[in-house]
Amino acid sequence: MTTYIVNLIHAAWAFINDYLLIISLLGVGLFYFLVFRAAQVRYLKHGIGLLLRKDISYDDDKVNISPLQSFLTGLAARIGMGNIAGIAAAISAGGPGAIFWMWVAAFLGMGTSLVENTLAQVFKTKISNGEFKGGPAYYIRYGLKNKTFGIIFSLVLAFTYGFAFVSLQTNQISESLNYAFNMPHWVVGMILVFLTALIIFSNLKTISNVSAVLIPIMSGLYIIMTLVIVFWHFTAIPKVFYTIFSSAFNTDAALGGTIGAAINYGIKRGLFSNESGMGSSPNIAASANVKHPVSQGIVQMVGVFFDTFVICTLSAFMVLMSGVYGSPEAVGLEAASLAQASIAIFYGKVGVDILVIIIFLFAFTSVIGYFTYGQVGVYYFTENKCAAHAYRVGVLIFTFWGAYNTPVTVWNTADIFMAIMCFLNVVALTFLWKPMYIVFRDYQLQLRRGIKTPVFNVEKYPTLKALLPDPDIWNDSAHHQRQAMKVAQKQAQESRAD
């Protein structure tokens, strides 16, 4: 009986880890690809153009962020360890073919990102200080009218980001420092626990402000370093493409990963990088002040494209052009250490040291960001201070656990939580296809009529209006009334002053 239970647990674990994520992510991506007739292709150019326009948002809002700010914030959250260690991990575990399947998943994921970020806008609400709040927990609660489902998602969000993803980041910091300086994993773990505790318990903002300046610089430096490699060795590009495509359908494990492993790790590591379908970016997208919810969905869709097809591809080319993968020197190298060994071929020890700094900044700021994401899930469930402190202690435990354990163990644990969170989100996205179709069709029809800047008015859709927690957000006439009131109040104040 005991053996049967153990085997059953192993089978369930394997199903969640190997199939649930892939089936759910590709399934919803393909569904919306067909429903919206390849919107990620037809609206990509349009989305890039939206980034440079200010007329898609209300210019009188001094509280909420603009669409461009939302795009940059979401991109900053995406660019990080997934683009470096995640890609190297995908290649080391699934072979070069994993990159092809990462592209496939990202292509479909662009459509999924369009949907989840649009719905986050549709079902957002405004709190007392004028800020917009929204995300999966909101469109689950109000769109599906299921408060329990929303609570479950918020708890999974808290565990996924606060525990599993935090441990993944600290694991890569530990791996990179061990590779570069032979620093013991337990020592790195203790240092990271101290630094993390210093921030999450004292609420210091200095490090966050410094990181806000350094992260864009480090991101730009990494992109420049990889671009130089690709351009300097441009003659190797056809060979790299051939390796990726031929390995994508490989059935011989001796050649660097079977097709099953390529699909598995390509999709998982790609999702960790671009987060499309996971339900994290909608929490940021909901904060943007836009005239039509679909415009924000399209903007975030562009973020997935840039993350995967540009930055992740540059990382993959760096690893494959170096020749380290598949060589005797690559034995025992995984994720961050494989990326470091690859960049050392082109830049030597200096390149390794620079990459250590980049990895540390990316990973450590992600730890703080993931803690914040997880805390949102906790607060949605309960605002009890004891629960909040217990959650912080749990984050510190997983901070050390991730730094001390092997990459395989930590990645597998993160994959489990990531699969569950993604599955819950895409189930909600599938059932909410009607509200999504209404707003997307509205946006599409306005563009066809030659309206350059579509504006969404929910009064035209009573059925949808009945679902929204704050329908006045999408009432254009109500917005103009508020504008008129502000102007009248300002004029009254000026007249009194005179």
UniProtKB/TrEMBL annotation:
The keyword Transport applies. It is a multi-pass membrane protein. GO terms for cellular component: plasma membrane. Keywords: Cell inner membrane, Cell membrane, Membrane, Symport, Transmembrane, Transmembrane helix, Transport. Pfam families: Na_Ala_symp (PF01235). The chain crosses the membrane at residues 12-35, 71-92, 98-119, 149-168, 183-201, 213-234, 298-319, 354-374, 386-404, 416-440. One of its GO terms (molecular function) is amino acid:sodium symporter activity. It is found in: Cell inner membrane; Cell membrane. It comes from the Bacteria. Belongs to the alanine or glycine:cation symporter (AGCS) (TC 2.A.25) family. This is AGCS family alanine or glycine:cation symporter. It comes from Psittacicella hinzii.
